[in-house]
Amino acid sequence: MTGDVIGTVKEVIRRTHNVKSIRVDVGKRLAFKAGQFLSAAFKGESECKRWLSISNSPTEEGYIEFTKKLTQSDFSEKLEAVKPGDKISLRYPFGKFTLEDNLGDMRTGITYLSGGIGITPIRSMCRYAVDKKLGTDIILVYANRSINDIVFREDFEEMQRRYDKLKVVNVLCESAPGFNCVVGVINSEMVKKAVPDYTVRKFYLCGPPPMVEAMRRMLVGELSLPKENIITENFQGYES
């Protein structure tokens, strides 16, 4: 069930030089599934609204968190200035890009292909799997320009230590001394190497729309995966 709440900003976390997470205390939190999204609007300014993924897991209680790349938009300007105690209007949950709506994928394993801020719903789903000890084999292939652009880097490192069935492959445009990564872009050869059993897995794709479409074409056209093995979110306003 979807609902509207007026929440109070509890914490503002800078994830990278241009990405922030906002944690909002909404009192009695509405139930949501890992991977779903919400709409956020500053109180009294309904025109200043954005659709954003929920980046925390249902297992992380006491707040709702959304994470956004800061751009030149009016909404991003509001986020730059937001501070604990400010009010914000949320409406949630929306979407079926979730683990709970695709539980059949648990048996064969899951691969996430993502880029940039597209990691937000994936972070929610991975945290849920780790906290619930689902036992699902998860491989995340995550592309960014540089090591400084990796959102939730420490978070995923901690999750891998706790959950030996989670493997993260960082793909960067430039190498970083002492950091384990693959230099290049996500392509079919990289997927084959990172995901040897790719033919039996479900793939979740999330990132900039052109990237998602390119990855979908690659999986279907070059790796001959059936379309039903590929799950995407119809999510608008990615860069706004």
CATH superfamily of the largest domain: Nucleotide-binding domain of ferredoxin-NADP reductase (FNR) module
- The overall pLDDT, averaged over residues, is 91
Oligomer: single chain
Amount of helix: 10-25%
Strand order across the largest sheet = 4-3-6-1-2-5
Q: What is the domain tally?
A: 2
Sheet of most strands: 6 strands, antiparallel
Characterize the structure shown:
- This protein is α/β, with parallel strands linked by helices and 240 residues long.
- It has two domains: 3-94, Translation factors (Elongation Factor Tu (Ef-tu), domain 3, Beta Barrel), CATH 2.40.30.10; 100-232, Nucleotide-binding domain of ferredoxin-NADP reductase (FNR) module (Rossmann fold, 3-Layer(aba) Sandwich).
- It has five helices and twelve strands.
- It has helices at residues 74-81, 120-132, 153-162, 188-194, 209-222; strands spanning 3-16, 19-25, 37-42, 49-53, 64-69, 87-94, 110-115, 138-144, 166-172, 182-183, 202-206, 230-232.
- It has a six-stranded antiparallel sheet, covered by helices on one side. Strands 10-9-8-7-11-12 form a six-stranded parallel sheet, with helices on both faces.
- The longest helix has 14 residues, at 209-222.
- It starts with a strand and ends in an 8-residue tail after the last strand.
